[in-house]
Write a structure and sequence with these properties.
By secondary structure, the chain is an all-alpha fold. The chain has one domain (about 1-40, about 60-85). It has helices at about 1-20, 25-35, 65-85. The longest helix is centred in the C-terminal third of the chain and has 21 residues, at about 65-85. The chain starts with a helix and ends with a helix.
């Protein structure tokens, strides 16, 4: 927990230093939230998300043909389980 506070302070100080030198920090500031949120752990409760990606190089997609195919496959598996059971 304290490490995230230290990370935020270091990043804010870095941005302030670059601004003092008249260096554009807009791209860095956009990436700052990703840097700070890397490694965040959710424990307890629940997470409701339209799309969620977890892990290195993970990508989340929402809707579209892939989601429709996955839903159709789930329904097929459920239906097959009912007819054979």
């Amino acid at each position: 927990m304290y490490s995230k506070i230290v990370e935020r302070e270091v990043l804010d100080a870095f941005v302030a230093f670059l601004r003092a030198k008249d260096i554009d920090t807009s791209d860095f500031e956009e990436r700052q939230s990703a840097i700070l949120n890397y490694g965040v752990i959710v424990s307890g409760g629940s997470v409701n998300a339209q799309s969620l990606a977890v892990g290195d190089q993970a990508r989340a997609t929402s809707g579209g043909a892939r989601a429709a195919a996955a839903n159709a496959a789930r329904k097929t598996v459920k239906a097959a389980g009912r007819t054979t059971g």
